[in-house]
Amino acid sequence: MEENWSMFEASKENKKILASFEFEPGKVEKGYTDRRLYINLLKNKIEEKPIDLPVKETFTGGRGYGIWYLWNTVSSNTKWNDPENEIIFCTGPICGVTQYSGTGKTHIVTLSLETGTV
């Protein structure tokens, strides 16, 4: 057991923090905080971006948000394994409400390896 722990510690020493982000919980209004977290792995950059009002007015959240943001960030030439491909994690406005079963879902939206589409 001690040998495994020392291997873990040695592995941990070789890691470094590439980026960090100070998170302030936002005010939740009708299930929304009107913001999203954007992480760029190529530039090691983390930033908070607003949810665009037309997106909020058109989609309820989750899958709709993800598809809209993917559609508007990748080009028609982007392949599933391109660095420009987005991986979008989206939740809906009732995510985490414990009174209703199934509300803990997260949608993951990206270009598919098998079809090359969403």
Automatic annotation (TrEMBL):
Gene3D superfamilies, sorted: Aldehyde ferredoxin oxidoreductase, N-terminal domain (3.60.9.10)
Aldehyde ferredoxin oxidoreductase N-terminal domain residues: 35-117
GO MF annotation terms: iron-sulfur cluster binding; oxidoreductase activity, acting on the aldehyde or oxo group of donors, iron-sulfur protein as acceptor
Pfam families recorded: AFOR_N
PANTHER family named among the record's database cross-references: ALDEHYDE FERREDOXIN OXIDOREDUCTASE, TUNGSTEN-CONTAINING ALDEHYDE FERREDOXIN OXIDOREDUCTASE
Name this polypeptide is given: Aldehyde ferredoxin oxidoreductase N-terminal domain-containing protein
Source organism of the structure: marine sediment metagenome
